[in-house]
Amino acid sequence: MSEQLVTTIEDFRKAVGLRLIFKGLIPTAELLISYGDKSQTEAARATIYGQPVLLVNTPIQRGVVVVTKLASQYQLPVVLLAPQLTAAVRRNLIQHEIAFATVDGEVMLPFLAVRLKAIQKPSQQPKLVFDPSSQKLVLLILMAQLIYLRFGKSKLKLVFGDSMVVKHGLLEIHGGQTFIETIGKAYDFNTRMTFTRAVEPLVTNELLKVQGQTKNRVYTCQLAPTEFFDQAGPYLQDPLMPRKKLRLSETSLDKLSIDTLQGGVVALSKVTMISADQADDNCLVVPRKQWQSIIASHISTINQQSTVQIQASKYALRPFNTLYRQFDATYPADIPDPLHLYLMFSADPNERIQGEVLDLIDRIWGT
């Protein structure tokens, strides 16, 4: 029996306290579900208060489909096991009358008329927002999930090496020197300490689980990018630095050798229905380090010819555009990726812009 499913069942038994008796693993080959679902699904026979059931561990975004098929195949109640649920996922499961149980004690068993709410556990006060390093790590993990779910293990390994791999239906993040040498340096994770400080808030706020000792520590999460993004969302922030703006003339800009991305409404207009005509001016985004070199050059001017607005980002956005284009090769190379565009504009006072960036994000999930 899979160690992961054993752990999940034990966590469930401890958290919920219902009388559950494990009866045996169901061979994956026996499950009448798609090949892709088989590779990420484990199922076992059990009883709950004497009622025969199937316990299923599968990525939460495939839960309704997999549970429905297995309930039809075995003519038994099927209970979906999950670490925790977002409000949107919970509503979807309840609408489809899917039985579920989570390790934080939330239970919905329609066949036994049982409904229990999650146990409210005392925990550390979460940070209001993640710092830039933690935010970058969240977005890297999210992109790893998306690339794996669209292209599979070979593309995941090509892009992330051994730093992020999929085992037993979970994404494993390998930190330390493995992370630094494979992908970390491209995103300014240059030391183990940088990674350690970045990952701690993700563990504290339950986005990741941790396994193993310090030297061989592995971090895991479900392959559920929509839910992961929803859970991380309250801690993510606008990547642009407030009050770090200046204007340059195009002549001055040409004198500088800087890597810029198109920003502002002009960038948004390239991937949404927003018109570039709504832009106040031409806005370019540069990393904070290059911003400092611009200031040091003493060529910035504020006058009638200063037609280009330069804004600093808290970290380099170019690598994330390059990474996103591994997922969608048709995406423009000269603007921030959709996730960063969403973070820039999600709080915009213009409701139409808010709606467009929400649609932009929904297209990533394929909804």
Distance between the termini: 35 Å
Instruction: State the major sheet.
Output: 7 strands, mixed
Tell me the radius of gyration.
23 Å
Total E-strand runs: 15
Unreliable stretches, pLDDT < 50, 5 or more residues?
300-304
Structural key phrases:
alpha+beta, elongated, 367 residues, seven-stranded mixed sheet, 15 strands
Structural notes for this entry:
By secondary structure, the chain is an alpha+beta fold. The protein has 15 helices and 15 strands. The strands form three sheets. The protein has a seven-stranded mixed sheet with strand order 1-2-3-4-5-6-7, sandwiched between helices. A four-stranded antiparallel sheet has the order 8-9-11-10. The protein has a four-stranded mixed sheet with strand order 12-15-14-13. β4, α4 and β5 form a beta-alpha-beta unit. α5 runs antiparallel to α6. The chain starts with a helix and ends with a helix. 37% of the residues are buried.
Task: Give a brief outline of the structure.
With 367 residues, this protein is of the alpha+beta class. The chain has 15 helices and 15 strands.
